[in-house]
Design brief:
The chain is α/β, with parallel strands linked by helices. It has two domains: 159 residues, SPOUT methyltransferase, trefoil knot domain (Alpha/beta knot), CATH 3.40.1280; 69 residues, Trp Operon Repressor, Chain A (Orthogonal Bundle). The protein contains eight helices and nine strands. The protein has a five-stranded parallel sheet with strand order 2-1-6-5-7, sandwiched between helices. Helix 3 crosses helix 5. The chain is elongated, with a radius of gyration of 22 Å. The structure holds adenine.
């Protein structure tokens, strides 16, 4: 396969959607190979314990290093090209922000291993040990807290897999989409021409491709200025003409 993905979690059922839709199709086509592993298979005690209280005190539990060490020894060596080296991806609210650029970087890899921990975290020595052997990316979906890394891993995997060359039917739809030009996407319309009294903007029916392109660019810019001014150079964010249509 072009890419191998291993996911280690205490909730393997949470990753069931990987067999559906996009990653499912990529696996059928042989482009992608995904394996989900239950962390508890690498526990050795009778109660299959994966967490313990934090040194130094505080709320919540921390994931113990021993099962993670065994799990990552197993997964990090199992790629199509063991010498090439896997990238360990650790979803955590204290990671670097996940962006389209990070998705593109991960899509260039041959082997990704996701370590899904609960949000209080995995014993830091697990990540330090893995970092001695290869690249580790601690990644945050955004400034909010999920209960564990599973949903974040699903989001990252979907964003990465759809970028694999030979997967998407239409490469132009990748180039044109939101975020590749640094602006939010312009609004889109399809038939019928009038729906519930609302008409599709005239310019889109004009056949004038230059006018359509500049209308779309202006809509994208105005929408970005209102919703995501942080994405614009300061001078553009200050400009407010054309915002009426957005409320
Ligand atoms: N795990 C818990 N919260 C998360 C977040 N915001 N992003 C990635 N992983 C997480």
């Amino acid at each position: 396969p072009r890419m191998r993905i291993d996911v280690v979690t205490i909730f393997p059922d949470y990753l069931a959607p990987l067999g559906l839709s996009l990653p499912g199709k990529a696996q059928e086509s042989g482009l992608l190979q995904v394996a989900v592993h239950d962390l508890r298979q690498w526990t050795t005690d009778r109660h299959r314990t994966v967490d313990d209280t934090p040194y130094g005190g505080g709320a919540g539990m921390v994931m113990r290093p021993e099962p993670w060490g065994e799990a990552l020894d197993h997964c990090l060596d199992r790629g199509p090209n063991p010498a090439g080296g896997a990238v360990l991806v650790v979803p955590t609210p204290s990671g670097e922000r996940f962006t389209q650029r990070v998705a593109e970087e991960l899509a260039a890899e041959q082997h990704l291993v996701f370590a899904c921990g609960r949000y209080e975290g995995i014993d830091q020595r697990v990540l330090d040990d893995a970092a001695d052997r290869g690249p580790v990316r601690e990644i945050s979906l955004g400034d909010y807290v999920l209960n564990g890394g599973e949903v974040a891993a699903l989001a990252v995997i979907e964003a990465v897999v759809r970028l694999l060359p030979g997967f998407m039917g239409n490469p132009a739809s990748l180039v044109e989409e939101s975020h590749s030009d640094g602006l939010l996407e312009y609004p889109t319309y399809t038939k019928p021409q009038v729906w519930r009294g609302r008409e599709v903007p005239e310019v889109l029916r004009s056949g004038d491709h230059a006018r359509i392109a500049s209308w779309r660019h202006e809509q994208a810019r105005a929408r970005t200025a209102v919703r995501r001014p942080d994405l614009l150079p300061a001078v553009h964010a200050l400009s407010v003409e054309g915002l009426g249509a957005l409320e």
